[in-house]
């Protein structure tokens, strides 16, 4: 694959450059170039101002039979931006500038005129000195006198400025430094005074607080009057939330320390052992005296509830099982179930 941008070309062995036909182009051929206006100009047709630096698509050609030291001179054709009139100007290599030729006028430039005048005077002086040696001496004498006068005028201006100014910069700087030091010292003293005043005020406030606390401790506290309840306080109390009763509590009862039906059950103790401990006689001992029997063994609370060991009690006695005040409905249900079991066994 060949290169896209070919730098080296192939020349065959039998290549003869003299056989290549030469292209004959006219000497006044024009090229289209992009340039900027070299100076300010004004169109003669419509009076439009064209400023330096404005860009144009111009036509460029070589001026025939004109050259400066072998350098060709070029002519440029542009069009006015308003009326499209043709404007031409050409290069001036002698003055390193451009010359207006047709279609517009170059605006006045004082700087350019001044430079041209200086060049003309300098050229005339050189021509005079070249043919007259005495003129050279006179010109040198004039130049030295002019230089002396310039130096004298400069010195007079300096003396005049010193007399009118009367300003000592060193003294000004010294005074500024002193004033700055004094200002900083004054600010520091003010800060110290303010800090001391704040400390003194805080100490005084602390002493006043200590003295007030001592007086309060020494003086007895006045008795406080009891607040009397108002009749309308009951209206302001929040209603108590009722506890939700579960379904099993409705059937069995609550497990609290005090059952709900404890007031409806009448406890009747039928155990003779429990009655003997309490110093009471049994119901069969009415009307006759019996010899004292030996003391029975200690009876526990469960035995008091279930009865003495021996013959099985009847269902009627089981139904009248005693209930302690601290027992719940669950314990009563257990006692009833025991009585049913005992009756079933009989």
UniProtKB/TrEMBL annotation:
It holds the Pfam family Saf4_Yju2. InterPro entries: Saf4/Yju2, Yju2. Residues 179-346 are annotated as: Disordered. Residues 200-209, 230-249 have a biased composition (Basic and acidic residues). It comes from the Eukaryota. One of its GO terms (biological process) is generation of catalytic spliceosome for first transesterification step. It is found in: Nucleus. The keyword Phosphoprotein does not apply. Residues 272-285, 325-334 have a biased composition (Polar residues). One of its GO terms (molecular function) is metal ion binding. Zn(2+) binds at residues 43, 46, 80, 83. Keywords: Metal-binding, mRNA processing, mRNA splicing, Nucleus, Spliceosome, Zinc. GO terms for cellular component: U2-type catalytic step 1 spliceosome. Component of the spliceosome. Present in the activated B complex, the catalytically activated B* complex which catalyzes the branching, the catalytic step 1 C complex catalyzing the exon ligation, and the postcatalytic P complex containing the ligated exons (mRNA) and the excised lariat intron. Belongs to the CWC16 family. YJU2 subfamily. Part of the spliceosome which catalyzes two sequential transesterification reactions, first the excision of the non-coding intron from pre-mRNA and then the ligation of the coding exons to form the mature mRNA. Plays a role in stabilizing the structure of the spliceosome catalytic core and docking of the branch helix into the active site, producing 5'-exon and lariat intron-3'-intermediates. May protect cells from TP53-dependent apoptosis upon dsDNA break damage through association with PRP19-CD5L complex. PANTHER family: SPLICING FACTOR YJU2. This is Splicing factor YJU2. It comes from Enhydra lutris kenyoni.
């Amino acid at each position: 694959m060949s290169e896209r941008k070919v730098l080296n070309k192939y020349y065959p062995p039998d290549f003869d450059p003299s056989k290549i036909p030469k292209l004959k182009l006219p000497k006044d051929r024009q090229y289209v170039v992009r340039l900027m206006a070299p100076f300010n100009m004004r169109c003669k047709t419509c009076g439009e101002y064209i400023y330096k630096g404005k860009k144009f698509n111009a036509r460029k050609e070589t001026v025939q039979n004109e050259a400066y030291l072998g350098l060709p001179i070029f002519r440029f054709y542009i069009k006015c931006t308003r009326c499209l009139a043709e404007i031409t100007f050409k290069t001036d290599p002698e003055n390193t500038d451009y010359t207006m030729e047709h279609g517009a006028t170059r605006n006045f430039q004082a700087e350019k005129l001044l430079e041209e005048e200086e060049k003309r005077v300098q050229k005339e002086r050189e021509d005079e000195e070249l043919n007259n040696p005495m003129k050279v001496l006179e010109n040198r004498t004039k130049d030295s006198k002019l230089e002396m006068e310039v130096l004298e005028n400069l010195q007079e201006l300096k003396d005049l400025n010193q007399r009118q100014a009367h300003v000592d910069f060193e003294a000004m700087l010294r005074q500024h430094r002193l004033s700055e030091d004094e200002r900083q010292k004054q600010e520091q003293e003010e800060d110290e005074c303010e800090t001391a005043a704040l400390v003194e005020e805080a100490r005084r406030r602390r002493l006043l607080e200590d003295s007030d606390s001592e007086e309060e401790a020494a003086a007895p506290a006045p008795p406080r009057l009891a607040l009397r309840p108002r009749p309308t306080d009951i209206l302001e109390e929040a209603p108590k939330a009722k506890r939700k009763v579960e379904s099993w509590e409705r059937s069995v009862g609550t497990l609290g320390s005090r059952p709900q039906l404890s007031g409806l059950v009448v406890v009747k103790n039928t155990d003779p052992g429990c009655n003997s401990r309490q110093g009471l006689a049994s119901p069969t001992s009415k009307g006759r005296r019996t010899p004292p029997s030996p003391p029975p063994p200690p009876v526990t609370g469960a035995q008091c509830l279930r009865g003495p060991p021996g013959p099985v009690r009847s269902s009627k006695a089981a139904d009248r099982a005693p209930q302690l005040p601290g027992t719940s409905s669950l314990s009563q249900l257990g006692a009833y179930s025991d009585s049913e079991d005992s009756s079933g066994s009989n």
